[in-house]
Amino acid sequence: MLPPEPSATARWWARASTLTSDLLVFDPHRLGWVLAMRTMIGLLLPLILARLLDLPALAWVGIGAYLLAIGDCMDDGDHQQPLRLAIGSLLGGLALATGVLAGASLPLAVAGMLVWGVLTGLLGVYGNAFATMALPVAWAYVELGLPSADHALSTALFMGSLFVLGGGLTLVLTLTLRIGGPYAVVRLKAAACYRALTTYCAADEETGPISSETRVRAAIADARRTAAEIRGRAPGSSRVGQQSLVLVEIADRLFSLAGALREDGCLPPSRFRQATTALAAALEGRYAKESLRALASEIAHTRARSLPVQAAISAEIERRMGRALYHALLIAAGDEAPPSSLAQPAPLARLSQLFAPLVGCLGRDSVVGRHALRFAVVCAAAVVVFWAFPKPFGYWVPLTATVVLKPYAGTTLARAVQRIAGTTAGILVGMTLMPLLPSPALQLALVSVAFFCMMAVLPFNYSLAIFFLSVGLIPFEHILTPGLKQDLGLLRLAATAIGALLALVGGHLLWPTFESRTLPTLVRASLVSVGAYADQVLGALEGNRELAAVAEARRRAGSDTTDLQSVLQRTLAEVGSKPGLMVASLRASTALQRLMRTLNALMNAAPALAQPWSGLKHFRTAFVAALSELAAVQPGLPVSVLRAPIPASMDPDNAVYLDCMLERLIFEFEMLRDALCEKPHTLP
């Protein structure tokens, strides 16, 4: 099932082709208009007030809002977005304050960069959205804190507070001007799947030249292809995009079940069609989450009908459709797991769960852990260069290093090319336009247009975004610091080149992670470690809970799935000529992430659910064996897992919750199996 590993020459040409296409790509359908609008409001409103009220300090509020908006462009619309903004604002304010204090001496500045470099690098363990939000924290230290001319404690606290206020402004604007982010188009494609599915479930007879079955198949294929294309050009994974793809997979499952029911001469119940209609409306933003949860509750308590033809089989098909719709409705409502009355973990246990991913990535075999250490050392070296660079723009050196250095050496090289190309072109245009902008008003107009365009294209073209940033940065620096010389652009070019060079050297010499450990190897490693973790979790549900073994299995599985996400970005970028492989890669990665979340939820509930019963023992054996068979890569093997019957002696509420979660495990396993084994685009 594994495709042969391409030669070094083939990989080089693929990478060169990808870099070229990334520099030129332009997708008008993915322009972030509203994202750009609220970013510019956050920047310009404090700047205008600072001039009108003669309060120059308000400019720091606008800069803080602007930097945090850039860091929050990763997963716009996600339910964790307010939390990320709050964490980024507080950490950024603290980083800025410590930067002001540490800027008094080079040893303190380097030591502070080492600390903040490790901390911001480790935030990537919580996902790509947090990794992106970590960048403004590092920028607050090197761009706003260290260059400060006043290193007094009062100045540090004052500037840090203004940065936090900027974060608050961005949060208010984000909650006021909501958009679906770069994955909004995927949600619309998923909605099209459920609309086509509703028509298919209601159609007794086919009318028109295109059958309802063909429309469903086309909608699902289109949604998968779009999700893979957007994920390949995005900076990292997205919870919103992941949930949308899972909903597409559930639509595919519902389509198969509805087809089986129609072969028995039956149509799905009207309540099911009501649910698919609601899902389509919710994905289009036209259905309240509370209504989705209410409908999910109704679906969960709907009994299968007594059907005349092959009653037992048809009733089982209806039960599976109902359970799939139940999960889809909860996911669309933003809930990761079914509602439960089970006791929540104690505060200390929740705190332990919060820091468990950080502990898990501290090993030498963790891509995230090595990247965090590499990030700190490279940025600390950049701070040394900053100290010797002409004032006051030495911060451009460590700033460039923070955005160019990535977990993998290959992606670091790609980002360096994009950064240098965009900066060079933008600086040349900006320097050409500056003589035509004699007044601050004209300069501010160019800044507004350039920064707006930067945010609009940032979701899909980094080099183009840097071009617009560099165009606007020249007049912006003249607004903030009147009387600057025209060689400002040349200084920025030099600083960008030095920062990119430091990132490239560090990425290739300091504990490097090359692409030799490719996607096939990481998929296998994740399957093995997730299988071991599943064995521990299901064992805990039987009452066999060994805390040390569970913690180690969870750490290993979390580390492997995090590493898989890190390399997936490179894989999606390199297989542009194989859209089927892109889709399969994304489906497999998403299924593994969802599987980990379900196992974590079951582990948290294990103390209340623990009860030895034979059905669970058989399910545990079959489920772990099935994951092992996938890891062994046996072509054509029909791997499947049957649901475990819940004992009648179990508490009814606990029984419903456990049944739903085991069903979810099966669905996520089948999603993973289909991605790995589907022909003709077979994954490792």
Model description:
With about 675 residues, this protein is mostly helical. About 75% of the residues lie in helices and about 0% in strands. It has helices at about 10-25, 35-50, 60-70, 80-100, 105-120, 130-145, 155-175, 185-200, 210-235, 240-265, 270-285, 290-300, 310-330, 345-360, 365-390, 395-405, 410-435, 440-455, 460-480, 490-510, 520-540, 545-575, 580-610, 615-630, 650-675. Helix 21 (about 520-540) runs antiparallel to helix 22 (about 545-575). It is globular. About 55% of the residues are buried. The model is unreliable at about 1-5, about 305-310 and about 680-684 (pLDDT under 50).
Amount of helix: over 70%
* Beta-strand percentage range: under 5%
SSE topology string: HHHHHHHHHHHHHHHHHHHHHHHHH
Structural class: mainly alpha
Low-confidence stretches: 1-5, 304-310, 679-684
* Number of DSSP-assigned strands: 0
The description of the largest β-sheet is: none
With helices defined by DSSP (H or I, 4 residues minimum), what is the helix count? 25
- C-alpha Rg (nearest Å): 26 Å
Q: Write down the overall mean pLDDT.
A: 80
Distance between the termini: 6 Å
Shape: globular
